[in-house]
User: Which sequence fits this backbone?
């Protein structure tokens, strides 16, 4: 079907570009407003702007940004003409804005490809409009229940999005019974990826977001578990089970605080891959990214190279050099992600300081009840390795109360609502620091920290 | 003195961190050197209601609701719960757990589901979700505590004529967004839409519920005060942020 570029599309594009430039000049860094204005003038502008672009889209609860950075690296390494919505705005307004910037005023794309990270709810419309070539779905966990209501609602949002791109190749996490249930509902070519072996010796105690079979509601059994509800699930009643993967991690050779080394099985061929970020959930992100990149047309070697060289997204295991020690910033958004952070830091041998920054703005999730679904009790097993716990953010008192109930002594907790004070306290630590913020806390803290240390703002 | 708590369906009705209420209760009992037990009871099991002093049911998804209703009938838990409520056993029911105690639920498409009928109220599934931080004041009967928490429900609950609410809405929607009632207090059943979770930063209500259970066994028992500095800081900070 021919997609025509009309006068209002020209105006919408022009308005978007102008607003964005104005915001940059005034150093406001807004990403949503330009797109929102463009959509007011031409509601389907994203369809017009995306018509010439081959899109690789990633959605799901956890791992979108890190996966997008892995995917993007392959385009960088092979010198392809592409753009990505790096500014972290993954709703339709921000995505529209990024497309407009990479299109001429007359709707011709300057770039051949796009790597797009897309929010689960936004994927309903975005996928319909940009018609991606490949879609990567990372996983489905309880997250932002103030937005989604229930976990099945998140899944349905993703299904609606996927059903609008029948020609796309869809890469699904085989270990997630929720995600992989999408396969039989869609006519698309499906590529399954996963992890064939357990990841942690003593994983955090977690609530399961998928206890009962999505087909027949019988309780799932597992041949092995990796984390959360992920693993080798099967239903004894109806036979729904984890599918065989096209791409999977069949062995984990090494997990360190800085990276992991695994054996990746890609369509029968096994190769060692070093993943440039630590922690079990990045092993999943790597497997998913290799599946998506090979589906997009990259060779296995090109995909492997991307995983080994990519740069993390802001606050996603990001390292800051504080002179005599490092600070690792790890974004948290929901119980699954936070439990994985706890699993990751439990592997540290040396003493470290820990900071939790909990905000409750819309992007953080306005209901902080989820803190009680995180196994913070695990922190009591760290003994002397954990020097101090700093607590900050608008909901710092709720966080401190959660830790009190987890068995952490109030003496070990230092509540510092003000970020400048927190930066002062953390930079004066003698041991490495791990800081774990929610999304808006991450942006604010990171911005203040970089002003002190010198570095790029997130939207540049 | 020993308080025996029964946690119903902890593996399914656990969607909004409501198990934090169990943590709060056990913490406050421990601080006072009061012995306690927490027994999880889920699908397929029946309950000896006389063995417990307090029953807790959290919130969950529509996805598992039919599974639960079938289980409640087939294991005899439904009949047991109705009897236990009438015999003044203490229940704390949150959100989905609260709705289930009512007579019925009507979905937006008109489909009616019979619920337990332990208390005279019903719920209508609304199209608009009532979500956000909210504040309500418990009635005098419930200690008059100011409660701050988070609600997230599409169901609109309407209490029967002779059924009292747990509290009155100060800001937010509450049971139905219309009559300013929040939750229910029927005999010793406390029902509410409040997440947060409910009890950690509302320690006064937690003690109210615990004492109600304890007094069924020893009517002269009192709870000694404990250090609630952090609880009160969290409570007051939240009220300050959300009071409109």
Assistant:
């Amino acid at each position: 079907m021919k997609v025509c570029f009309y006068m209002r599309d020209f105006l919408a594009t022009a308005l978007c570009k102008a607003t964005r430039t104005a915001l940059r000049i005034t150093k406001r860094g807004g990403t949503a407003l330009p797109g929102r204005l463009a959509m007011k003038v031409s509601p389907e502008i994203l369809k017009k702007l995306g018509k010439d672009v081959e899109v690789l889209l990633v959605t799901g609860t956890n791992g979108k940004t890190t996966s997008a950075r892995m995917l993007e690296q392959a385009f960088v390494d092979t010198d392809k003409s592409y753009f990505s919505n790096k500014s972290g705005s993954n709703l339709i307004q921000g995505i529209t804005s990024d497309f407009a910037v990479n299109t001429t005023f007359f709707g011709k794309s300057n770039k051949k490809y796009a790597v797009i990270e897309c929010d689960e709810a936004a994927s309903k419309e975005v996928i319909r409009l940009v018609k991606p070539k490949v879609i990567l779905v990372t996983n489905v966990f309880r997250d932002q229940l103030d937005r989604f209501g229930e976990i099945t609602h998140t899944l349905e949002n993703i299904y609606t999005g996927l059903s609008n791109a029948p020609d796309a190749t869809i890469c699904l996490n085989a270990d997630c019974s929720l995600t992989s249930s999408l396969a039989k509902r869609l006519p698309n070519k499906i590529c399954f990826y996963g992890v064939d072996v357990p990841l942690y010796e003593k994983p955090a105690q977690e609530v399961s977001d998928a206890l009962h079979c999505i087909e027949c509601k019988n309780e799932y059994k597992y041949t092995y578990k990796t984390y959360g509800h992920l693993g080798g699930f099967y239903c004894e009643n109806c036979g729904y089970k984890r599918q065989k993967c096209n791409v999977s991690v069949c062995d984990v050779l090494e997990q360190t605080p800085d990276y992991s080394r695994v054996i990746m099985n890609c369509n029968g061929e096994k190769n060692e891959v070093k993943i440039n970020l630590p922690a079990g959930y990045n092993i999943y992100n790597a497997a998913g990214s290799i599946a998506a990149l090979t589906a997009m047309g990259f060779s296995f070697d090109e995909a492997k190279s991307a995983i080994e060289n990519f740069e993390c997204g802001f606050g996603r295991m990001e390292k800051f050099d504080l002179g005599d020690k490092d600070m690792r910033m790890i974004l948290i958004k929901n119980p699954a992600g936070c439990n994985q952070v706890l699993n990751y830091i439990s592997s540290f041998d040396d003493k470290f300081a820990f900071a939790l920054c909990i905000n409750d703005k819309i992007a953080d999730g306005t209901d902080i009840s989820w803190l009680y679904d995180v196994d913070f009790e695990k922190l009591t097993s760290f003994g002397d390795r954990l020097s101090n716990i700093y607590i900050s953010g608008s909901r710092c008192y709720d966080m401190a109360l959660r830790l009190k109930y987890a068995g952490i002594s109030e003496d070990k907790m230092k509540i510092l609502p003000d970020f400048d004070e927190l930066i002062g306290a953390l930079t004066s630590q003698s041991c490495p620091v791990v800081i774990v913020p929610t999304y808006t806390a991450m942006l604010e803290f990171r911005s203040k920290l970089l002003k002190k240390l010198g570095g790029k703002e997130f939207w540049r | 003195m020993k308080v025996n708590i029964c946690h119903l369906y902890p593996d399914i009705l656990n969607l909004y961190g409501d198990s934090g209420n169990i943590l709060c209760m056990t913490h406050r009992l421990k601080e006072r050197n009061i012995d306690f037990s927490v027994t999880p009871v889920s699908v397929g099991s029946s309950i000896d209601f006389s063995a417990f002093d307090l029953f807790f049911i959290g919130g969950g998804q529509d996805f598992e609701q039919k599974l639960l209703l079938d289980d409640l009938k087939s294991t005899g838990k439904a009949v047991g719960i109705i009897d236990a409520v009438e015999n003044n056993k203490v229940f704390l029911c949150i959100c989905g757990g609260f709705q289930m105690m009512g007579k019925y639920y009507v979905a937006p498409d008109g489909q009616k589901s019979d619920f337990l009928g332990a208390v005279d109220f019903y719920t209508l599934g609304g199209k608009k979700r009532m979500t956000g931080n909210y504040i309500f004041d418990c009635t005098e009967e419930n200690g008059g505590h100011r409660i701050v928490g988070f609600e997230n429900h599409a169901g609109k609950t309407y209490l029967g004529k002779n059924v009292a609410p747990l509290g009155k809405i100060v800001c937010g929607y509450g049971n139905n967004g219309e009559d300013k009632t929040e939750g229910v207090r029927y005999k010793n059943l406390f029902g509410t839409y409040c997440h947060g979770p409910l009890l950690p930063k509302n320690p006064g209500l937690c003690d109210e519920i615990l004492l109600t259970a304890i007094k069924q066994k020893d009517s002269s028992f009192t709870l000694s005060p404990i250090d609630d500095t952090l609880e009160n800081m969290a409570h007051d900070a939240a009220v300050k942020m959300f009071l409109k």
Notes: The radius of gyration of chain A is 22 Å. Chain A has a mean pLDDT of 91. The first helix of chain A runs from residue 7 to 25.
